[in-house]
Amino acid sequence: MDFWLTLLNMNNILVIVAGKKKRLKLFRQEGKKLGMEMTIAAFSDLNFVSERESKFTLKVGTKDVSKFDLIYIHLVGKRLEEASLLVNYANESGIKIIDSLYETQKLMPSSLSKAMETKLLIDAKLPIPKTFFASLMHINEKAGELLDFPLVVKSTTGRKARDVWSPRDAIELKKLCQELASREKAGEHFFAQEFVKASQRIRVLVIGEKVVGAITRPTKWRKRFVKKVDGETPEGKKEAVKPVPRVLSNLDLKAAKAVSLQICGVDILVDEASGKLYVIEANAAPSWKLIEKDTGINVERAIMAYLQKL
Description:
This protein is of the alpha+beta class. The chain is built from nine helices and 16 strands. The model is unreliable at 1-9 (pLDDT under 50).
């Protein structure tokens, strides 16, 4: 079907572009002449908020993307991560996409995108900290209201606890967003999460459909809330988790399955007050040196044994 004929047969169209929307001013004008209902947006307008026990909803501004009949993607460029979220959500919602190549191809796997990883964890109804994915401008404007302070800001491509910040108030958040602006302009993306008062972070290694080991390490900002003893914050634990509790194993296996990883490091936080577990990462390339050190497990041997059975 001809491109314009396709558009004419649709009632509600989203045109999304990498860059400034004003470049599409003439496009909007011509659409109005043809009597077409059209929304023109930038990839930076895409956002989602994870609410506990709710369905994943991707929005452009305040409108659910699934409410459109057709999406025209005009240039992707450095917006590959957001385009992957959009395409995945549109395909699940049965929305036609122009160009049609987006209907059959996965642009970026979840192993390279924390935004997509988070989306898959939400779809699997796994407990994650409340999350707000948006542009830095919108994070600065809305994250404090949605998540309360302190909160956590992460890069979607950060690894090994790098590129993680925790502004304690609106002033610190604004300063952080200003400092990260050049990185966003270069194509990097960020998201905000609620601050979980967990003094320990648990890393569990999954190989195949089996949990092979787990360790625990102190969290980065534990001194903010851990009660002092004789004026000092107690040292955190650095040890193996033996045995791994079943509730923890079940959660880790579900997380690995949700992101389609057979060899996976799953990071868990345990809220100090409620005891609730939160999945904060499902990593396709986990470091296992500390797991080997603390548990005595030969991880390379365990992986090779798994591969041999395939």
